[in-house]
Design brief:
The protein has 473 residues and is α/β, with parallel strands linked by helices. It has helices at 5-15, 18-23, 29-43, 81-84, 126-140, 168-180, 198-212, 236-244, 261-265, 273-280, 282-315, 318-367, 370-413, 415-420, and strands at residues 47-58, 64-69, 74-79, 96-106, 111-121, 158-163, 185-190, 217-222, 249-253, 268-269, 425-427, 445-450, 453-458, 464-465, 471-472.
Length: 473
């Protein structure tokens, strides 16, 4: 009989699955996507990818979403707002770019995407694209319009220069200005002329000169350099500060072939800083040359006139000169005599006219004798006064007569006159006149008013009169 224990143990170890089941690891979708994202982000961090931009969309938040593609594949890309603001150009569909970022997975869609940190255009440089885009946008706003630009003052007294103190630019400009216009004052606002903070310093310099009100114009000056060195002069804020400046601005940046946004925004562009110095003193230099030429012509003319005068003097003899002087003096005396005669005639005419006017006024004064006028006025006053007194007496007499008549009529109508004739008035307790015996009752108190007094009485009995004048009880 065979022992089956080892066989059974062997079979059990070979065909049993609990050990395999214990080693199985189950992921949720989220766990798997997050694990894959972590692995991808570790292995593909800070990588560079080249491709063509397509399906570019800008969200309201400022984030940029687009797809990088080539002939065989495509990859979604997101550029967050903070990094998008640092770009020197605006991405558009169809351009080739070199993108740096971190490969990741967007877990909501389980989609692989690149979280970009920066973009660089392939072919044309980023600075050139940014320059062209900014130039077109500002031109569309009218910031470069020729009608907006102001002429430079012909004879400035003080010029503000915004540049570095350490370069040869300011030395060359001052040398030319002193040679061509020694009376022109130069004020320098020192700034860095390249780097990230240079544009902000230049904007501050423009504001300083506008607020100080000391200079007549402002010059932005810098020597030549690479496109990266001149990038601060392509700053949008600097362009707007130049346009809003109350003082004229001259841009003298780089060499003659260098073109910046500041050149378009400025009122005048000079090819070089030295050319700007010559431009500022052009009128002064021109006036100096004109003065030199006029002085030369004046000296020539004076020499010629002196020579002609000397020749005429030599031709003149002394007797002829004296004779001409005598004739001139004679004409002057004759003119004086003529003026004297005219003055005397005029005075006589004025005296005669004034005498006639005085006689006429005296005759009019005699015709209007004040004493006679006063006597006539007094006589009129006496006549009017007498008429007024007579009229007053007549009015008084007529008024007195009317008053007596009215008084007599009033007395005739007076109740007191009736009482004088023997009548009386009876009043009841309320002070009302008793007009009929029906108003009284036996025992009522009455008051009888006579002409010379009154009597209080009490009613004892009442008798009514009939039509036949017979009393009734």
């Amino acid at each position: 009989m065979l022992d089956s224990t080892p066989v059974n143990a062997s079979v059990q170890n070979e065909f049993s699955f609990p050990a395999l089941i214990a080693e199985r690891k189950i992921y949720t979708v989220h766990q798997l996507v997050m694990a894959a994202r972590g692995a991808i982000e570790r292995d593909f961090a800070a990588i560079w990818i080249e491709g063509e931009v397509s399906n570019l969309r800008k969200a309201a938040s400022g984030h940029l979403y687009f797809t990088l593609k080539d002939g065989d594949a495509q990859l979604p890309v997101v550029l967050f707002r903070r990094q998008a603001l640092l770009l020197r150009f605006a991405p558009t569909d169809g351009i080739q770019v070199l993108t740096r970022g971190t490969l990741s997975i967007y877990e909501s869609r389980g989609q692989m995407q690149l979280i970009a940190e920066t973009l660089e255009p392939r072919g044309a440089g980023a600075l050139q694209i940014a320059f062209e885009q900014l130039r077109e946008r500002l031109r569309a706003e009218g910031l470069f319009a020729a009608g907006r630009k102001r002429p430079l003052p012909a004879f400035p007294r003080m010029v503000g220069v915004i540049t570095s103190l350490h370069g040869a630019v300011i030395h060359d400009m001052v040398t030319i200005l002193r040679r061509r216009h020694s009376a022109l004052h130069v004020v320098v606002y020192p700034v860095p002329v390249q780097g990230d903070g240079a544009a902000a310093e230049m904007i501050a310099g423009l504001a300083h000169f506008n607020e100080s009100n000391r200079v007549d114009l402002i010059v932005l000056a810098r020597g030549g350099g690479s496109a990266e060195d001149l990038a601060c002069y392509n700053h949008e804020g600097l362009a707007r500060a130049i346009v809003s400046s109350a003082l004229p601005v001259v841009s003298a940046v780089g060499h003659e072939t260098d073109v910046t946004i500041a050149d378009f925004a400025a009122d005048v562009r000079a090819p070089t800083p030295s050319a700007a110095a010559e431009l500022l003193t052009a009128w002064q230099h021109r006036v100096g040359e004109d003065i030199f030429q006029l002085t030369h012509r004046l000296e020539r003319g004076l020499r010629y006139q002196s020579m002609r005068a000397r020749e005429r003097y030599e031709r003149l003899s002394l007797p002829a000169v004296f004779a001409r002087l005598q004739r001139n003096l004679g004409r002057r005396h004759q003119r004086i005599d003529e003026l004297r005669f005219r003055m005397e005639t005029c005075l006589q005419s004025c005296v005669v006219a004034n005498q006639r006017s005085l006689q006429h006024l005296a005759a009019r004064l005699l015709q209007r004798d004040p004493a006679r006028d006063l006597r006539e006025a007094q006589q009129k006053w006496r006549t009017i006064n007498a008429r007024l007194l007579r009229g007053g007496a007549d009015v008084h007499a007529r008024s007195g007569a009317r008053l007596h008549i009215a008084a007599a009529r009033l007395m005739a109508l007076s109740p007191l006159e009736v009482l004088e004739r023997g009548y009386a008035l009876i009043f009841d307790n309320d002070g009302k006149i008793v007009r009929s015996v029906t108003q009284l009752q036996p025992g009522d108190d009455t008051l009888t008013r006579f002409a010379n007094g009154s009597v209080a009485s009490r009613v004892i009995d009442i008798h009514l009169l009939t039509k036949g004048n017979e009393p009734t009880a």
